[in-house]
Amino acid sequence: MKKVLTYIVVLMFALLPIMLKAEEKERTKIDLSKYETLNFKQALEEEGIELKNKSYSENDKQATIYLFRGRGCHVCQSFLSYLNDISEEYGSHFKVVSFELWYNQDNANLLDDISSFKGETAGGVPYILIGEQVFGGYAEQYNDAIIQAIEDVYNGKDKYDVFEAYNDSIKYHLSTTAKMVIWNIILLAIASFIIIHFVNKSNQKVLEKLDEIKNTNNVKITTKETSTIQKKVVKRTNAKK
Hints:
This protein has helices at 2-26, 40-46, 74-90, 105-117, 143-155, 162-171, 176-240, and strands at 63-69, 94-100, 127-130, 133-136.
């Protein structure tokens, strides 16, 4: 039994790296350069919207607005129009990375990954991410919150980026299955030691009992042999008389 339990534990430890490697392949880091994206000017142009702030430009100091949209989506157009309206006042504070996903399956899959990472299921477009803020859709009542999110990221020392956070999380990510395997290994190892301990203890008691029975039988045999010898001695003594 001890060998069988040992083999099971060793086998599970051997399979664990394979499972973790499979998990790593399933969830890999995101390289945005491999996706088709548009900046603010390009997204406006694609939707036929004229840029109001002619001096608008983008740089690394600005807050990034990640916009998942569909080409021709009226709500997405409304959001871009709103950004266009505030571009003269806040244009120096934000830039846009636009993912069109109605005609691009890779971008659609990316939205699934990012929304899952944020603990949500994207119900459609637009899906907007500014720092840690997520806007599932767009309506005028979001305007103040959108400006606040832009300012928080722009003025913040640590500019949270959802894709950087996603990639960083992979270093420490273990699937539920992998976690279950690890706990099962630990529990199995503990159970194995407990079982082996009690089996050994039980075997020890059996061996002690057998020794006790053996010693008792030896005493009985010795007593019987002594009695026989004594009888022979008495008989010989009587014969001499």
